[in-house]
Structure formats: C-alpha cells, structure tokens
Amino acid sequence: MLKPENHPAIPAPKVGVLFANLGTPDNYDYWSMRRYLSEFLSDPRVIDLPKWKWQPILQGIILSFRPFTSGKNYKSIWNHEAGESPLMTITKAQTTAMAESLQGLFGDQVMVDFCMRYGNPSTASKVRAMVEAGCQKILFFPLYPQYSATTTATANDKFFTALAGERWQPSVRTVPAYFDREDYIEALAQSVLRIFPTEADAPERLICSYHGMPMRYLTAGDPYHCQCHKTTRLLAERLGWTPGRIVTTFQSIFGRDEWLKPYTVVEVARLAKEEGIRRIAVMAPAFSADCIETLEEVDGEIREAFEHAGGTSFTYIPCLNDDAEHIAALTNVVAENLRGWID
Questions:
Q1: Cα torsion through 119, 121, 126, 132, rounded to 10
Q2: What is the pLDDT of residue 7?
C-alpha cells in the first residue's frame, strides 16, 4: 500500500540487544555522587523501607555525608584519562566486543548498545534511540549472572517503565540469570587457571565474594543466595580442587540489618587469625565488570583486613570484564534468546 506524502519515514526493522549494568556517577564530586546515590538508594527494591520512614533519613542524614566518602573511594579507582569510572570503561569495551561478535553472527540485523539502571546513559534514552533506529524487537540483558530483585528485577522495572513512554512499543524479551551455564562457569574457571594453572600453584583458600543483601530478602523468596552457592559449587567441581578450598562469602554490607553471611571482610580475617591461612585469592562472580565494589572494596578494604590479621599473600582475580571467554559466553546467551526472532 502506498504511503501518503506526509507519512513519517520508517527505518528498516532491526532487532535491538540492550545490555544493562548497575550504573555509575558521572564524576566523583559531591553533587555527582549525591545525585547517583539518591537515585540508587531511593529504589524500593534496594531499600524496601516505607518512603515516609526512609527518605528523611536518606536525604537529611546519609546524603549529607556519604557522597564525600563514596567520592573519595571513586577517586581512588577513577579512570582519569577517560574521565569516567572503570565500570563505564569496561562496559563500553564489553559492548564493543559484543557488537563485533553478534555482527559476525547476524550482520546488520542487530543493533547493540548498553544502558545503566542508575545514572547515565539511562535506560529510557537507549530504548528511545533503539526505537528511533527501527528496532521493532528488543532483547534486554541485565548483566547479573545471579538473579536478585535488587539487581535483575529493578533493571527490568526500569526497562518496562521506559517502554511505557513509547507510542509504538517494540516486542521485548528479557534474559534470565545465567549463573549455572557451563560456558559462564568455564569462563570463571579460566580466569582462575590463568593465575593458578594447577592446584599446587593455588592459594590455601579461594574466596568467591558475592554482593550481599539483607537476610529478610532471602526469607521473602529471593533466589540470589542459592544461586550464588550453586555458582561456587559448579566452579569448584570444574576446577577439581580439594573440597573446602573454595568458599562463598558476601560483601558490601550497609545499615544495621543482618545480611547474608559469612561477611567477606570478617571471614578473611578469621581465616588468617583462627586457621592460620596465609595465602588466599578472592574473586567476585556476581559482578560482570570490575567496579567500586571490587577495585576499592575487595582489592582495598578486604585485602587490608586479611593482611592486618596476619595474612601474607592476597591475590585479587579480576572480573570477567571483556575477556574473550566471557564475550563468547554472553554471545551464546544472546543467540539462544534471539531464537525465533532472527536467523
């Protein structure tokens, strides 16, 4: 059917693949940090207290002081040359690598981009860009191996909110957690084996440190805790190391509530003091990219706790980032989730 002369131009249809990560402040100054922390800590999936109770505490007390501390921590790991956080630098590299990998499979039929749940680039801006570019189908991929309402679900929430603003909504799919996929476990294993090729080279303990969450979230039905333990178990089976050599812990504790245990910072000190462990390595399988929680907390605060307690050798194993094994695993996930949409 012929279009009328004044009909708006319609771009050729494409399939969008939109990756999402947690987010990052635009800078480490007070106001940039305050804007970012306010958005993050106002998310009811992250802090599930009633707004009337939580917001006065957040806006009046926490955000008066915490931006200074967080800004100092971000400054210590900031990519000053690029003027951005390491998470932003790495996510850009991952997206470039994924675009090249997916173009090799699907050619120009796909458009690949990334967004952040908090901060910039926003989810809404990237959904808008994809729709304008002709994406009539969008695969939304939160880059969290293990599912949690505080990460995967809130990223999906933001995506669906962005769709609510579109007049011509694309068809959409969301990618599920991939914590137990063989290719993901293999990528984790290879990141360990590059540093410790054999069990004889390995440290006395390998700590798999996952981001923590309040215990009440687990009892409310969040599967995150179980999925973290399964990731550790599968990694241990793949490495074939002596049972008990690989342990699961949780980091980034906030507030006074009881959180998932054992706490990483406490456990590494206990290992040194009570068990006489002198050589450990720590990795963070819940993070797809290195960020403030790994570069400053794990390789800073947690390292210091272990060494102060008597430990002598601490090795931080970086996140999978844009490692080729990781990109291959993510490509497999995307290809599987695009079935029926694209050949």
A1: 130
A2: 63
